[in-house]
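Worked problem 6 (solution included).
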Amino acid sequence: MILCDIGNTTFHFKTDTNDFKIAVDKKSKNLPNIKNKIYFISVNDKATKKLLKKYPSAIDIKTLIKFDTKYNGLGLDRQIVCSYYDDGIIVDSGSAITVDIMDKGIHLGGFIMPGIEAYKKIYPEISKKLSFDFKNETNLDKIPLNTNDAINYALLNAIILPILKVYKEHNKKIYFTGENSKYLLNHFKNIPYKYKKNMIFNSMKKIIKQKDN
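Solution. The predicted structure is:
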């Protein structure tokens, strides 16, 4: 079984032993020859067509998932990630940061923030004098006394404080995933959390297994 997460820029393939990425702007003929059954999720319709042209029997996970939520328009990628845990706060930090609350298998809702890379672009666009070096180890308990620290202080608090607010309201363990979550973890040392790099693939496996049973 091969899993594939199709994003805006890459096909991300995952096997039992390794994973690899291929740019979505490649032609379908440049995708690897795979004989195993492929399950995929996608936020990119054009790339999905390329995948299905190469692998006509590939199965879209959205045909297998049944997700309980009143949230209107919840993206499939968020549904997949949230399906992994029945209870907790799920933080997925990528190009955008999504925060979702799960309670006994029911999705209570969530919100979306710009990702760290998006925040890093905002300040230089305001003024060249606001170009800065990102430092995730910035002390958030101390008021900054220079511009670089001031920007990092504001950037990190803009992300961390809404997550802390949800944690205080719901008192649930926080589950982090996504490549940029590593920049946030040291600010949650006194709060119960867990980091899983490939939560989306683990959740895809869980959904497939439940369907097979």
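Discussion: The mean pLDDT is 92.
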